[in-house]
Every structure is written in structure tokens, then in C-alpha cells.
Amino acid sequence: MTTVAIVGNGPEELLADLHSYHDKIDYWIGADRGAFVLARRQIPIQYAVGDFDSIDEHEKNLIRESATYYEEYQVEKNETDLELALLKALELNPDEIYLFGVTGGRIDHELANIQLLYLIRNKGIKGVIIDHLNYLELTLPGVHEIMEDKRYSNISFIPYTEKVEGITLTGFYYPLTNKTITWGSTRCISNKLSSISGTFSYDKGILLLIKSRDAIPK
């Protein structure tokens, strides 16, 4: 199994602990300032891509020294830096793509980044967004097992399509049987597993699985 991780330009204070995922990742890709974040944390960078308009020349040099491949683009382009990084990731034929540093900051970028999960899933690849409070994964109809994760104990399901039909939750504190939820529904928000594992299933539509941890006190 091949796993690629992309680190974007989101606020660093929202990043998950990247080193804790190091053993799971085969290739690290830095998008714009995300490449500098990787270089500064001494995580080997296979590809650094973007217009690098958010960093100075000293930071660029550190990226160049740390990255196996460095690709700089014009500021005026059709794709975001993250999308360029994703296109590079897809060339590696991965089974999984992890996205870090893609939440927080500008809401337009965050919403667009979440929608990239659809592009990834549509190619038969597991795509996950992770930050220090959340784990997001787009799912397709069928039966899915979910294991207890003490880091992210709160579990929510958000309809990605206008309607999601036949949702059944087994092994949850709030079980559900063959229900339909639509955009704007809060029916499947903030649930928890009642044992070490559970399943969720549905027949039609697309669900966004969100696992969250309680906010960390400052």
C-alpha cells in the first residue's frame, strides 16, 4: 500500500503532529509554505510545489535543500497550490492520500480543500484530511467499519449530497436504522461508539465522516 501526505499552507497551530504519521507515509509533498513547514521539521520532502508567494528567499533556499524535487509555478494560474500538489500525488498511484495544513484560515480555501476529497475518492483512492482536532473522510454507499480512536472520540456524519438514504448506525451510543438525512440536517452530529468498534452503512448518496476530539484548552 502506498500512502502520500500533502502539507498545505494552513495555520501551523492547527496542524496535527506530523512526526506521529511518519512511519505511515511513503511520500511527503509540500504545497507552497507547507514545504517550508516540512523542511523546518526535518521531514524529508519528495516534492515541493507551488508559487511560493508566501515565503521569502531564505525559506525557499531551505526548501530547495530539503526537497528531492522542487517545482515553482507562476502566481497567476488556474489551480491552487494544494491542487497542484494533489495532481503530483496522483502521479504516484497511491492507495491513500493524507492532507495536512488544509483547514483553518480562509473559509473559501478550506471549503474547496474539503471538496478535493471528492476528486480523490472518485479515483478509487482513500482521501483523509487531518488536523489537531479533526479527521475527515469522504465515504461512498456500503457498509463501513469504524474502530475506536481515543484521539477523535466524537463521530459525525454530514450529507455531502442533497440526500443520503438508508443510514444505519450499529455499535453507536445513538443507533440509527434506515434513516434519510438531507442538507441542513443535524441528525447525525456528535455521536460516539458504544464499544471498541461499530459500523455505519447507507444505500444512496455520499457521506462525509468527521471524527473530532474535544477542544484543547489554551
Automatic annotation (TrEMBL):
SUPFAM superfamilies: Thiamin pyrophosphokinase, catalytic domain, Thiamin pyrophosphokinase, substrate-binding domain
Keywords: ATP-binding, Kinase, Nucleotide-binding, Transferase
Any one GO BP annotation for this protein: thiamine diphosphate biosynthetic process
Domain Thiamin pyrophosphokinase thiamin-binding: 142-208
InterPro entries: Thi_PPkinase, Thiamin_PyroPKinase_B1-bd, TPK, TPK_B1-bd_sf, TPK_catalytic, TPK_catalytic_sf
One GO MF term attached to the UniProt entry: kinase activity
EC number: 2.7.6.2
Record has Transmembrane helix as a keyword: no
Name under which the protein is recorded: Thiamine diphosphokinase
Species name: Oceanobacillus arenosus
